[in-house]
Design brief:
Helices cover 48% and strands 13% of the residues. Bound molecules: nicotinamide-adenine-dinucleotide.
Amino acid sequence: MLKGKSAVVTGSTSGIGLGIARALAKEGCNLMLNGFGDAAEIEKLRAGLAAEFGVKVLYDGADMSKGEAIAAFMKKAADGLGGVDILVNNAGIQFVSPVDEFPEAKWEAIQNINLSSSFHCIKAALPGMKKKGWGRVVNIASAHGLIASPFKSAYVAAKHGQVGLTKSVALEVAEAGITVNAICPGYVRTPLVENQIEDQAKVHKMSHEQVIREVILAAQPTKKFVEVDEVAALAVFLCGDAAKSITGTSIAIDGGWTAR
Ligand code: NAD
């Protein structure tokens, strides 16, 4: 039922966003990709997805930290794809520091990219979805949208905000055929986490394997990373017809982390 729908996935040049974009393309969705990276690599990715799945794939590198650029980005997606049926707010960054040493610029960047970009994209997408009487918004929050860890104040605040935004917007559009949900992954091994493994190994003077088991996955009961494909499959499910009554929820996919 997703064949022919159009989807915007922010931050889809890497990691979870790329996995979701790929999974939606496999279902027959046309795509607007977004995110940073090497221009030639991104073009290869764009053309590769289009050829593999026979769908239209556009790319725009709009900076999700810049609210004023987002309306134009969303208009380009709607014009190029014939509206935006599915919006996946995935772009995100991390920065770890004690709160009393947290650089203001990093705080601002995390709020803008991890939270405010979701607001701007949703604001731009909803009128078209309302007109069609159908829409899906999937916000990629985090287990850190439900619980906290020390030294991640900006990230935890932004992700809790994204969960709140999810609930509020879901209520506003509940009668319009539009669902709004958050996915809250535990640790998924993407470049965002690889960087943390590297940093923690230096700080704790541990090997990468030790950091993975004793630091990163210490709170994740399965002691295994969540796979990108698992998060992507959940996003596809939320976009499907079987999930039409699921709205306003935050679904943890975290190996049991938030069950503690
Ligand atoms: P990643 O670093 O692999 O990918 C992040 C993507 O966002 C990239 O495409 C990057 O280019 C893009 N991006 C970063 N800043 C941007 C900006 N200003 N404008 C536009 N695009 C920008 O990271 P990931 O692990 O795949 O993370 C994706 C999302 O999942 C994030 O919101 C993250 O908080 C969330 N998440 C990740 C994990 C995890 O363990 N990896 C767990 C829970 C939640």
